[in-house]
Every structure is written in C-alpha cells, then in structure tokens.
Design goal:
about 130 residues; alpha+beta; 5 helices; about 35% helix; globular
Length: about 130
C-alpha cells in the first residue's frame, strides 16, 4: 500500500487539471496503477483522492460494519458513495478534476495538496487557510 507524504501549492489550469506531484508519483512506485478514486469529502470542503487499492479497503470496511437495511446506515452509505469519480493520470501526470467536483468544493486557481497516509486531500488554498 502506498503512503503519501508531503504538501504542495499547485495551480489548476483552465480545464481543471493539476500536475500530480512527482513526489507522490515516486511514492507510488513505477509499476503502480495510475487510476484513482476521487470524492468530495463527507465532512470538509475538499477533495479526497484514494488509490484504487485504498478505496477498496475503505469500501470493504464500510460493507462489514454497516447494514444497508438500517435507515441511518443507508443515509451514510449514500453520502459515502456520492460525489465520486474515477480519474486516471494522463501521460504527463496531470490529474483532471471532474467539473462537478470543482464546483462542489470551490477549487479555484490555487490549490493546496496534502498527503495523509493512504489518501490525498486537495483544498482550495483560501479555504484551507481559513479552516486552520
């Protein structure tokens, strides 16, 4: 499993892409799958990026602990799965953020990216600074 460490100030281009930090690419290893699951965070106004492996681990935990026939659990499951997308890095390691997720999280030109163990958070820089 990959562990992401480091934080980076990055610019979004006009198409909603950012250059995936080379440190993260190296931390993944040369043979790593370059497809990720990105989702709007349930609690914060940011995006969370998972490798496919770490996303599947989270899904497995949720499936083990929750009963989809329990109303409260079902509400959580809906929130857990909504606002997700699969994104593959392009040939130059650019990450294209889906437009709806750009809008929902308020990501603008300047973004702040943080490696947090097996996930990555992507914040609008102003929003991140205001949350601390």
């Amino acid at each position: 499993m990959c562990v992401f460490t480091g934080d980076f100030q990055i610019k979004l281009d006009t198409k909603g892409r950012f250059l995936f930090p080379s440190a993260f690419v190296e931390q993944m290893g040369k043979d790593a799958v370059r497809t990720f699951v990105v989702k709007k965070d349930i609690f914060e106004k940011c995006l969370t990026i998972y490798t496919k492996e770490s996303w599947q681990e989270r899904v497995d935990v949720v499936k083990r602990k929750l009963n989809p026939f329990n109303r409260q659990h079902n509400i959580f499951l809906r929130e857990f799965y909504k606002d997700t997308a699969e994104v593959t890095l392009d040939a130059t390691n650019r990450f294209l953020v889906p437009k709806r997720l750009l809008t929902d999280t308020g990501l603008k030109d300047d973004i702040f990216i943080i490696g947090l163990d097996d996930k990555i958070e992507v914040w609008d820089t102003e929003t991140y600074n205001a949350s601390r």
